[in-house]
Amino acid sequence: MGASLLSSKTAARRIRSVPRMKTGDFRSSQARDRYLAAYRGAWEACPEPDAEMDVPTAYGTTRVYRFGSTGAPLVLLPGLSATAAGWGEGLKRYLGDRTVYAVDTLGEAGLSVQTAPIRDARDRGRWLGEVVAGLGVGRAHLVGASTGGWHVCAAAIHAPERVASASLVDPTAVSVGFSFGVVWRGAVAMLVRHDRAWAWFLRWAGGLDVDRPDVRLVLAGVREFRAHLPPQVPFGADLRRVTAPTFAVFGGRSVVHDGAEAARRLRAALPHAEVELWPGADHRLDAAERVLEFVRRCGA
Fold first, then answer.
1. Residue ranges of the AB hydrolase-1 domain (predicted)?
2. Are 172 and 149 in contact (CB under 8 A)?
3. What does the buried/exposed string (b/e) look like for 241-275 if buried means 16 or more CB atoms within 10 Å of the residue's CB?
4. In whole angstroms, what is the distance from residue 122 CA to residue 127 CA?
5. pLDDT in tens, 4-18
6. How many CB atoms lie within 10 A of CB 195?
7. What are the chain's domains?
8. The pTM is what?
9. Separation between Cα atoms, residue 203 and residue 226, nearest integer Å
10. What residues in the chain have per-residue pLDDT under 50?
């Protein structure tokens, strides 16, 4: 990954300099150091980026990794606390004849540094719009997995001028709410506040192997980072404001929500969208090939 990633003292100084407010931050300098060790470990499974940058926005600086330098830009938004490293080897599936930007979501654990609150979907959408503008690409094809899909929808509604297309991979809380299982299991894990409880939650939600470096990174984020995030609730009638070409795929066996109902409601709200239900798939979908085929048909 190169000496500039986390080995520098600059990242540590930036994190320490953030003023105290309702923003995400690390619980202590020791917590930050433990997290950065997990972050480095997760990046070992990822391809080497061509550049890393900190994009300024009204809400703080956003860490973005660039792969390639030609072709229509693709911006990847990860699931909750997964960071850009959460794509792992799957990043390679998106690379090729285009520029790919992988983002550490602001307000969650990672190398993005939040300085102002993100209070609602409007703020979240404007943040992502500012990231795209800061990359100097005008508009980008946005791809969001899980929670990242909610962020992409927020941008399509509140910063539409920055969105060339929106691809949603089993997006959470876009057209339906979280399942009861998410609510009660998440509440238990938050109450217990122990790695084993969160590992239990992640195994249930996505069949994730907690020994994987990217999953250990999520656990480190939960343990070491104090997030202040806006509530994720379905967009309701606001979904009709999405005009960008949209592709969405839902897992029929996803336990985080009712995938079939989520697909049905999104079709009803966005008649122009391409919405698919994969009956045998769970929450952790590999839809890279399908996403890229859609983006190519969008003229990119």
1. 73-185
2. yes
3. ebebbbbbbbbeebbbbbbeebbbbbbebbeebeb
4. 9
5. 554 444 444 444 444
6. 15
7. 9-176+210-253+270-297 (3.40.50.1820)
8. 0.89
9. 22
10. 3, 6-20
